[in-house]
Amino acid sequence: MKDAPAFDFYPERWLAGTMHLSPSDRGAYVNLLAHQWLHGAIPSDPAALIRVCGCKPSVLVLDKFPFGMNPMLEKVRSEQRARIAKSREKIEKMNAARASCRASTRASTRASTRASTRASTRASTSSPQEGSCRDSTRPSSPLTTHPVLLEKEPKGAHAPERKRKRLEGEADFAAAKAVMLDLTADKQLQTAWHEWQAYRQRRHSATGSERLPWTAQAARMSATQVQAAAERHGAQIVTDRIASAIAGNWKGLNFDKIQPTHANGNNHHGAARQAPYVTRNAHPIPQGLGSLNDTDWRPDPIVFDPERPDA
């Protein structure tokens, strides 16, 4: 089950449990609680722990996280999950009852409409009105049986469902914004990830063809791909890839299209890097010129000397 983006905060418990802590220890304690809520536990690496806290945590703070987790926060998580599951079950029962009521209402409306139509048809064919100009052999027009007119639901019937979907979408978007890379990752790579997050959030809030949804599942998958690509190709190549994706307005990062370069200068196909073309008089053609026909550059003329042995 997906956890909510926020956890319950109890002021009385907080004041009773942190009265003996200094202001810096309280700040470190709050940061560690937030990290545990998002990732399930606090970092085990001392350097990552200092980055999360903003300072070196004291022993009093670390004692509140035996085995890397705060027991009270996990209790709050389990209570919140049970409350969310109970609320979802209640909503599903209400939706099922509402659907059953709609089905029975539609069936009774169709039956009554058919009965009234048959009765009016019999009355018009058996006893036509006196002085009527119409042909008595033709039955009168039946009442309407259009399904849209008969089964039209009241205005605002789907408002609770739309509100629920909207709230779920907002919660999912908030969870996507909270996804971040491993704290041990390169700082330049973390900065590039924050830029990619901001770019995808702008695309999520756009309209029309520019809109690109950004969910928590997509954010977690992208973070995993970024870290895997950084381990395979290096943080600098992945950072440049993210910058190119933002500049090119890409939908994804497409790390599978990166061609790894080996130490001998060959790509993954085994083709060596192309060296500059060298003429007979040892003047290389500058990079960017396609051939000797380009007017921007000309090699020195070759002078024939019959006395030279290599001429």
What does this 3D model show about the protein?
The structure is a single chain. The protein has helices spanning 11-18, 23-39, 46-53, 59-62, 71-126, 147-150, 159-177, 187-205, 216-233, 235-247. Helix 8 runs parallel beside helix 10 (235-247). It is mostly helical. The radius of gyration is 37 Å and the shape is flat. The model is unreliable at 267-283 and 290-295 (pLDDT under 50). Among the domains are: 1-119, no CATH class; 176-257. It is built from ten helices and no strands.
Distance between the termini: 83 Å
Main sheet record: none
Outline type: flat
Tell me the β content: under 5%
The helix-and-strand class reads: mainly alpha
Q: Please work out how many helical segments DSSP would assign.
A: 10
Helix content: 40-55%
Question: How would you summarize what this structure contains?
Answer:
This protein is an all-alpha fold. It has helices spanning 11-18, 23-39, 46-53, 59-62, 71-126, 147-150, 159-177, 187-205, 216-233, 235-247.
Set out the fold topology.
Layout: H1 11-18, H2 23-39, H3 46-53, H4 59-62, H5 71-126, H6 147-150, H7 159-177, H8 187-205, H9 216-233, H10 235-247
Helix pairs in contact: 7-9, 8-10, 9-10
Keywords:
311 residues, single chain, mainly alpha
